[in-house]
Amino acid sequence: MTEAMPVAPSLHAVTKEVLxxxxxxxxxxxxxxxxxxxxxxGALRVASLEEEWFEDVRxxxxxxxxxxxxxxxxxxxxxxxxxxxxxxxYSYHHEWExxxxxxxxxxxxxxxxRVKGTTRNMVRKSQKAGVxxxxxxxxxxxxxxxxxIFNETPxxxxxxxWHYGKNFETVKRQFSRFLFRETLIGAYLKDxxxxxxxxxxxxxxxxxxxxxxxxxxxxxxxxxxxxxxTVEVCxxxxxxxxxxxxWRDTSLVDFKRYNGFQEMRVPRYFVPLTAKGRIALxxxxxxxxxxxxxxxxxxxxxxxxxxxx
Length: 309
Prior knowledge:
Elements lengths: L10 E10 L2 E10 L2 E5 L6 E4 L10 H9 L7 E5 L12 E11 L3 H8 L2 H12 L2 E6 L3 H11 L4 E2 L2 E2 L7 H8 L6 E8 L2 E10 L4 E8 L8 H16 L3 E6 L5 H7 L3 E11 L2 H9 L5 H4 L2 H13 L2
Parallel strand pairs: 4-5, 12-13
Antiparallel strand pairs: 1-2, 2-3, 3-4, 5-14, 6-13, 6-14, 7-10, 8-9, 10-11, 11-12
Helix pairs in contact: 3-6
């Protein structure tokens, strides 16, 4: 019998609209065997799975083969193992991605064993202040509330806020794209939306997407109440983990820790596809210049940025 020849992956280019730094931009992607991969801009072109939070790379070798056939080929391909898959499965070069994750079994277990007493007091404080938490619909009233929150201040956490200045039509268009996988959770003071969460369902875990509240009502512990309600919804949706971006030494780490989040490290792989990619990986340039700054430099810069808020 003759050995079957390997089948080349199907490959075609598409153009999509993606939200980058709060703006909708057209971005070129390539679809390889029904999975879309996008490319970063800049001197080093890095390819990654477009929906990497929501799906796994089904066949890395086929993806690598397809990316090498692109003209021009990207310099690097990166992908990771999603929560809670923490043991490396592949022999490619990998580094550790540090994520903030809270394991969820029951709401009572989270409330009694995972959060600090101060957090429980903050949630009670929110309740006493009259803040009501409930699942919401993406209707005109909710969008109007979003616009009010977005336009409260042009600066959040020491940096220009992406969504400041957006009108009703823009917010409705940009935030309606992924409602098929999102649950909206609103925090209300009487009839006023003072905070909300867009909880995305990634199958094995939930993702705290847009998570924001009015600074005007920060004395009502709105964010703590929103986290508590989000955990409750995760239990109802049978999502055993909740992820809140990365676990870095920022002002948010204490908030995450007090609300039951902990560090979970998952492997991220880097595969060079060109000579430039191999050189960049060997010199540690594959994560960008910010990742190269030593911790003793980064910490004061973050503290300075926070003082500008």
